[in-house]
């Protein structure tokens, strides 16, 4: 008698894969019900976890809304001319604090600049700072955190203490001290400052994710096969540790944008002539009784942007969370 | 079966217990493996049984050199591999492979089945030329009873039993002579366990493999093993061939273990006498003096507190020459009828 | 004997984003006072989901009871109010889980957790409750109960934790205990201790016991009758002695045959071919037919009812006569 196989005939049956997930050590439970459906029928395509996540995301309304918003923001950050024809720095002091007028739907600020144009152009600074700071912090944080988690020992202890020190710096106070001595008016000092204070958060997440991934049997299996540390790190650990880092980085992006606005509001972040929501909110705040529209529009733009990134992070977390898989 | 392919001599693994963050002070050690000796012969299966915490999984990791032994030697075909590193260790790994317990964590979820089974060839490019690898992977899938067309699928699309087959295929890729199986079926459903055991038996014959089969399920170990070693708290307490251990156990721990196995036969539930051990396994960080089993043993006497029993054929049983005359680390080793419980 | 629990035609489904998983499909069983019913099945057989439905701890959503009734001491519990259900749970029926460590609260001492039962259900003072907790721990033979009553769950070994779980279930002297794989996570020698304790307390207190397990061996030692489940259905029920000698369903027979036996040493083990079905797509007809060596055309089309194959015996197989005979 031929050996009894999982499937009636090893060569032709695709049925068995369609049923994957029904076996397993755990008794059927609600969470497992989800995994049973993973291989959908005999025609199940090969799907990686990433494409599964994408499959989920496409059907998540929160993701669609936030992604469209962010797409729109990025577009106007690159080409503000698409929707704003004016010049944010062309101001007419005669129009100071006037309300909406034809061609100027949001009215004018104290300097007589068009609030609509400035709000549109303000996206550039916010998105640039947010994206660059997140990229920098994520890169630095995941490399340092990843190494700490992978190698452990004194290297880990040293990095953890260093990140503790950075955690201990009050972010606003640090910004006031550090940035007030900088005279450069570009976005880069602000980006640099946020990276400097933002990486420990990412590093902690990356370290934890790497330690978790490291304990999996497949990493041991790779070692048993003779794989070196580079292969284990790049092929087995990094792909399985990257998900939480992406989630945290996406949420951090939103908070970095609001941090930039806060610093600019306090006068140590971006400085005129750079156009920034934070600067505009700052100058509008003193006139809140007389001309609330000056505050309303940049503040609304800032809130919507931050919210969009945080919502995106949430949606990505839901899609990548292994507990729901 | 004359040649010992793997010899283990006085293998020890202590995990230090430390206190303090900056100034680490060792305050003790978990003695996971505390002096283990055995031989594995070509083409045979050596079963290692014991309860959780007895050190059997640590033995597997030491043999695979996934943990560094504290002391002792591991000889592969006479060559000491205990302290090898780098290239030499990598070469040895082609000869010893492992099948893991949990088919859900032993396969990288981000890799396709083809990549998982093909990884051994990437690590050891000399094992198969590049152009042939895909064909080799498909052959391996076929060998373990999976459809070779599944090569592009991901692990989460397979059931537990199928995943374990993938793990076995990965272990076979480099044509090793020894496979260490750490509880390979304990995470599988009852009706699937038999399928995987049959597959492993067939592969053993086909490729003349030697297995070290680590498990807590005594009846499965009995089915697949030629010889069996029983571990308790980091030491082998009794070893012998399958019949000696299961039909003529002389160590009280083995006897208790066998009598505790539930028998799927209700007609025997009144007749048989069960040994119910008192208490739990002591902590491996605080091993009792003398015989380590004495705290739970009904035979324990003054001598057991002071004198460590050696793993050898007990002198008083040697004369008999029967199946009871096998290695047993007990001062008062004696047969006791506990009725072929795992049968 | 009076029927303690009677489950009739129970259907449970899980509505997931991938479709409806039919976890329980028409389960009938009953337990009398002082009786032990073993529910045997593999993962996905619906054995635990049935228990959760009885206890009223089914996660809903995604789980839904779509049909059927559960009578406990004559009353239909599914029609009871949430609050009445809660009182029933713990006081009249209790559950023991597989993983005692996650079933116990790690930040409360075991004494507090045991005592809590008396404070909530019996209105005892903290001090009296504590004394009762010590009594209970003595009863499940935890050594030095008085000294250990203030310890936390992680300070106990696996076997001791499972004893604490048992003590907790027994605390209010319920009429029915459901034990879901109570010894699966334990070592063999400890398993024996715990099963013995459970059986002894059950006899003493004349409780009904539902023992959910995948282990044919554990069942043989303690059960009075057995229900074998497959794909959410009961495929065979019988008094414990008969099922091992002469199974009446090919699935039960396959499970028994695949246990390694002495006289088969070195031979191939009998293995049931194939995999358990996905609960999203249970095959039509008899759910076991794709794996069954005896399957005929009728098995692909007609779902077999639970035929009465003897006194108190049932088998959901069209060919139960042949199975019994062969």
**Largest interface: which pair?**
A-B, 46 and 57 residues
Q: Give the biggest beta sheet of chain B.
A: 6 strands, mixed
* Sheet with the most strands, sense and barrel status of chain A: none
Amount of beta strand of chain A: under 5%
For the record, what CATH class of the largest domain in chain A applies? Mainly Alpha
Mean pLDDT of chain A: 78
- Count the E strands of chain B: 10
**Helix-strand string of chain A:** HHHHHHHHHHHH
Low-confidence runs of at least 5 consecutive residues of chain A: 1-45
Number of helices of chain A: 12
Distance between the termini of chain A: 39 Å
Integer average pLDDT of chain B: 87
In short:
The complex is a heterotrimer of chains A (325), B (343) and C (326). Chain B has 343 residues and is α/β, with parallel strands linked by helices. Chain B has helices at residues 56-63, 86-93, 113-123, 133-143, 160-172, 190-207, 218-224, 242-247, 252-260, 302-306, 315-318, and strands spanning 4-19, 25-41, 45-49, 71-76, 79-80, 96-99, 178-182, 210-215, 227-232, 235-241.
Task: Give an account of the 3D structure.
Helices cover 66% and strands 0% of the residues of chain A. Chain A is an all-alpha fold. In chain A, helix 10 packs antiparallel against helix 12. In chain B, strands 6-7-8-3-9-10 form a six-stranded mixed sheet, with helices on both faces. The radius of gyration of chain B is 21 Å and the shape is globular. Chain C folds into two domains: 221 residues, P-loop containing nucleotide triphosphate hydrolases (Rossmann fold); 93 residues, no CATH class. Chain C has 13 helices and twelve strands. In chain C, strands 6-7-8-3-9-10-12-11 form an eight-stranded mixed sheet, sandwiched between helices. In chain C, strand 9 and strand 10 form a beta hairpin. The mean pLDDT of chain C is 86. Chains in contact: A-B, A-C, B-C. At the A-B interface, helix 9 and helix 10 of A face helix 2, helix 3, helix 5 and helix 6 of B.
What distinguishing features does this structure have?
heterotrimer; A: 325 residues; mainly alpha; MetI-like fold; 12 helices; 0% strand; elongated; disordered N terminus; C: 326 residues; alpha/beta; Rossmann fold; 2 domains; eight-stranded mixed sheet; four-stranded antiparallel sheet; 13 helices; 12 strands; cell membrane (chain C); transport (chain C)
């Amino acid at each position: 008698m031929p050996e009894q196989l999982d499937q009636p005939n090893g060569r032709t049956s695709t049925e068995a894969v369609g049923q994957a997930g029904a076996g397993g050590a755990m008794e059927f439970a609600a969470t497992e019900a989800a995994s049973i459906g993973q291989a959908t029928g005999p025609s199940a395509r090969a799907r990686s976890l990433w494409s599964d996540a994408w499959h989920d995301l496409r059907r998540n309304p929160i993701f669609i809304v936030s992604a469209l918003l962010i797409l729109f923001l990025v577009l106007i950050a690159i080409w503000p001319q698409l929707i704003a024809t004016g010049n944010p720095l062309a101001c007419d002091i005669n129009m100071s604090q006037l309300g909406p007028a034809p061609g100027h739907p949001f009215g004018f600020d104290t300097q007589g600049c068009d609030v609509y144009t400035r709000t549109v152009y303000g996206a550039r600074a916010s998105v640039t700072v947010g994206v660059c700071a997140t990229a920098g912090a994520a890169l630095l944080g995941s490399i340092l955190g990843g190494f700490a988690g992978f190698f452990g020992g004194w290297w880990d202890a040293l990095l953890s203490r260093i990140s503790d020190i950075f955690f201990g710096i009050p972010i606003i106070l640090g910004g006031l001290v550090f940035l007030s001595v900088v005279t450069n008016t570009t976005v880069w000092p602000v980006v640099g400052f946020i990276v400097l204070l933002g990486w420990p958060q990412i590093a902690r997440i990356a370290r934890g994710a790497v330690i978790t991934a490291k304990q999996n049997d497949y990493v041991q299996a790779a070692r048993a096969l003779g794989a070196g540390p580079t292969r284990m790190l790049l092929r087995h650990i990094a792909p399985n540790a990257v998900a939480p880092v992406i989630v945290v980085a996406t949420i951090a992006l939103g908070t970095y944008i609001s941090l930039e606005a806060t610093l600019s509001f306090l006068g140590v972040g971006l400085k005129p002539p750079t156009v920034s929501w934070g600067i505009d909110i700052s100058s509008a705040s003193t006139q809140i009784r007389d001309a609330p529209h000056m505050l309303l529009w940049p503040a609304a733009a800032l809130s919507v942007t931050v919210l969009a990134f945080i919502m995106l992070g949430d949606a990505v977390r839901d899609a990548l969370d292994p507990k729901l898989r | 079966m004359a040649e010992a392919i793997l010899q283990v001599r006085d293998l020890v693994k202590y995990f230090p217990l430390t206190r303090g963050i900056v100034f680490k002070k060792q305050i003790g050690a978990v003695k996971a493996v505390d002096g283990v000796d055995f031989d594995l012969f070509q083409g045979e299966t050596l079963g290692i049984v014991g309860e959780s915490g007895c050190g059997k999984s640590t033995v597997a990791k030491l043999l695979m050199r996934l943990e560094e032994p504290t002391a002792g030697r591991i000889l592969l075909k006479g060559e000491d591999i205990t302290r090898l590193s780098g290239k030499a260790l990598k070469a040895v790994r082609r000869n010893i492979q492992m099948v893991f317990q949990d088919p859900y964590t032993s396969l990288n979820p981000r890799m396709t089945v083809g990549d998982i089974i093909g990884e051994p060839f990437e690590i050891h490019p000399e094992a198969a030329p590049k152009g042939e690898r895909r064909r080799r992977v498909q052959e391996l899938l076929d060998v373990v009873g999976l459809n070779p067309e599944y090569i592009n699928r991901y692990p989460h699309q397979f059931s537990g039993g199928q995943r374990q087959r993938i793990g076995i295929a990965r272990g076979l890729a480099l044509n090793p002579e020894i496979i260490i199986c750490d509880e390979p079926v304990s995470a599988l459903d009852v009706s699937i366990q038999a399928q995987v055991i049959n597959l492993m038996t067939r592969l053993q014959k086909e490729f003349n493999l030697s297995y070290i089969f680590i498990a807590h399920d005594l009846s499965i170990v009995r089915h697949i093993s030629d010889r069996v070693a029983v571990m308790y708290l980091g030491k082998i307490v009794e070893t012998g061939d399958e019949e000696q251990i299961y039909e003529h156990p002389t160590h009280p721990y083995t006897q208790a273990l066998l009598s505790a196995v539930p028998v799927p036969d209700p007609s025997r539930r009144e007749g048989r006498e069960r040994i119910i051990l008192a208490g739990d396994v002591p902590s491996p960080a605080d091993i009792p003096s003398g015989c380590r089993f004495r705290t739970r043993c009904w035979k324990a006497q003054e001598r057991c507190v002071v004198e460590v029993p050696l793993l050898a054929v007990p002198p008083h049983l040697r004369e008999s020459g029967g199946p009871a005359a096998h290695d047993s680390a007990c001062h008062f080793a004696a047969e006791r009828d506990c009725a072929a419980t795992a049968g | 004997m009076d029927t303690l629990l009677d489950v009739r035609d129970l259907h449970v489904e899980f509505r997931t984003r991938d479709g409806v998983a039919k976890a329980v499909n028409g389960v009938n069983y009953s337990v009398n006072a002082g009786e032990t019913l073993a529910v045997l099945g593999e993962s996905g057989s619906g054995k635990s989901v049935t228990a959760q439905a009885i206890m009223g701890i089914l996660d809903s959503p995604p789980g839904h009871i779509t049909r059927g009734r559960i009578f406990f001491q004559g009353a239909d519990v599914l029609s009871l109010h949430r609050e009445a259900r809660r009182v029933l749970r713990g006081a009249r029926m209790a559950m023991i889980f597989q993983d005692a460590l996650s079933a116990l609260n790690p930040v409360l001492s075991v004494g507090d957790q045991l005592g809590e039962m008396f404070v909530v259900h019996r209105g005892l003072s903290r001090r009296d409750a504590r004394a009762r907790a010590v009594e209970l721990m003595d009863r499940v033979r935890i050594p030095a109960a008085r000294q250990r009553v203030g310890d936390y769950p992680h300070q106990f070994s696996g076997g001791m934790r499972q004893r604490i779980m048992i003590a907790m279930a027994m605390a209010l002297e319920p009429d029915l205990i459901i034990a879901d794989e109570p010894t699966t996570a334990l070592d063999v020698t400890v398993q024996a201790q715990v099963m013995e304790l459970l059986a002894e307390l059950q006899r003493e207190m004349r409780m009904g016991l539902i023992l959910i397990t995948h282990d044919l061996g554990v069942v043989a030692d303690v059960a009075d009758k057995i229900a074998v489940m497959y794909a959410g259905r009961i495929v065979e029920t019988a008094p414990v002695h008969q099922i091992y000698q002469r199974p009446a369903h090919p699935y039960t027979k396959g499970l028994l045959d695949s246990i390694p036996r002495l006289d088969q040493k070195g031979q191939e083990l009998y293995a049931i071919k194939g995999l358990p079905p996905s609960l999203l797509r249970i095959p039509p007809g008899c759910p076991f037919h794709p794996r069954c060596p005896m399957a005929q055309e009728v098995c692909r089309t007609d779902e077999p009812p639970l035929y009465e194959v003897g006194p108190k015996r049932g088998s959901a197989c069209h060919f139960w006569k042949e199975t019994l005979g062969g």
